[in-house]
Write a structure and sequence with these properties.
By secondary structure, the chain is α/β, with parallel strands linked by helices. The protein contains ten helices and 23 strands.
Length: about 375
């Protein structure tokens, strides 16, 4: 048994001073103030001093980092990528695909399913939680960096091909609700337990509402790759901002969305309905240069990932996103942590992660008062 102690702990909904977390076999036994928990002989003590223990961060939209792309055929670099994520506080993630030829997507889904099913008992880095299928069922008008030649009209048959290739490990799918037959695919994906997210969409308000009625309950990188908000033709963004039953994620790197708009999103949705994502690509953590994103190359220039002058993913890390949210939306660190932990966990309906409570996985991050990562703990093992 291991006892982890710190000056402060966020569950994240509750704040505990002088906290102690008891862990056995990779799971949390108890979380309590130190004065309420007497440590018995033989318990190993790990004291994080004046730091803050928070749940492990969860990134539900990430294409890669540290030179690794989740769709690449050679998976030998995945371990280094997962270690990189852990160094930045991420303990669970959803590897995210991009639009590509169908057989390329299927092969990538098969490899990612292998990685999910082969998770080791003693993790040395972040662990894949489930797959995020972004594309090919997206709008040509709002495709962003996704190649136009690889976009498809959604059909149940094509979705099922992807589902079978992923062996049921698709957790999230981003889809444009205005596309022909999109509501049918949304309904079927929802029936299979997938979080359907509206994104890369030129939808009118009416089409967005049809997508929600069919089962969609989330929005992908809000404001980016979406029809712009207009006071006479409000479009998809009006539905996202006003529908209390839709959650929304956002890229808080300061490039994709102006800080004031992130403040607006939090004010409109409430912090409990906002999730941070990185949308990071293989360029994250790397020097300026050219890097892979699915089947195409992207150039990293001074923190921006670009293709033909357009943003194409990010070089953001989740700990930086948390600190940015504090600054951009004027929330405290505990609220910002919520957007990187329990909120994404709830969005993808994951169990025993994103919270610090008895029975939960012993995945947590040790932060300074300003949100800098000091250590990450995965299944009870400390990664400095």
């Amino acid at each position: 048994m291991i006892a982890f102690t710190s000056r402060l702990l966020y569950t994240p909904s509750e704040s505990i001073n002088n906290a102690v977390v008891l862990v056995r076999n990779g799971a949390i036994l108890s979380v309590a103030p130190r004065e309420q928990k007497e440590l018995t002989a033989g318990v190993k003590l790990v004291d994080f001093g004046d730091c803050i223990i928070v749940p492990g961060f969860i990134d539900i939209h990430i294409h890669g980092s540290a030179g690794y792309d989740v769709m690449q055929s050679d998976q030998t670099a995945r371990g280094g990528f997962e270690t990189f994520l852990a160094r930045h506080g991420v303990t669970r993630y959803c590897p995210t695909t991009v639009a590509a030829p169908v057989d390329t997507i299927q092969s990538a889904l098969e490899r990612l399913a292998d990685a999910i099913e082969a998770q080791p008992a003693g993790a040395s880095g972040a662990q894949p939680l489930g797959i995020h299928l972004e594309g090919p069922f997206i709008s040509r008008a709002c495709r962003g960096a996704h190649p136009a030649e690889n976009l498809l009209v959604p059909t149940l048959a094509t979705f099922d091909k992807f589902w079978q290739a992923a062996r049921g490990h698709i957790r999230v799918i981003t889809i444009a609700p205005e596309l022909q037959d999109a509501p049918e695919v949304i309904a079927e994906a929802t029936r299979r337990g997938v979080c359907v997210s509206l994104g890369h969409s030129d939808a009118t308000l009416e089409s967005a509402r049809h997508g929600f009625a069919a089962g969609a309950r989330h929005a992908t990188h809000t404001f980016n790759a979406m029809r712009r908000l207009d006071h006479r033709d409000p479009g998809i963004l009006a539905e996202i901002l006003t529908n209390d039953h839709l959650t929304a994620d956002v890229i808080a790197d300061g490039f994709h969305v102006a800080p004031t708009m992130i403040d607006l999103l939090v004010k409109a949705k409430g912090i409990e309905n906002v999730a941070l994502i990185t949308d990071a690509i293989s360029a994250a953590g790397m020097p300026d240069g050219r890097y892979q994103l699915g089947p195409f190359e992207v150039e990293l220039q001074a923190g921006r990932c670009l293709i033909d002058g357009r943003l194409a993913g990010s070089a953001l890390t989740m700990d930086h996103a948390v600190r940015n949210l504090v600054e951009f939306a004027k929330v405290d660190l505990q609220q910002a942590v919520r957007a990187a932990t329990v909120n994404p966990s709830r969005i993808v309906r994951a169990e025993k992660i994103g919270v610090l409570e008895p029975g939960a996985n012993a995945d947590f991050v040790v932060l300074t008062a300003t949100g800098e990562v000091r250590a990450t703990v995965i299944k009870g093992a400390v990664l400095q």
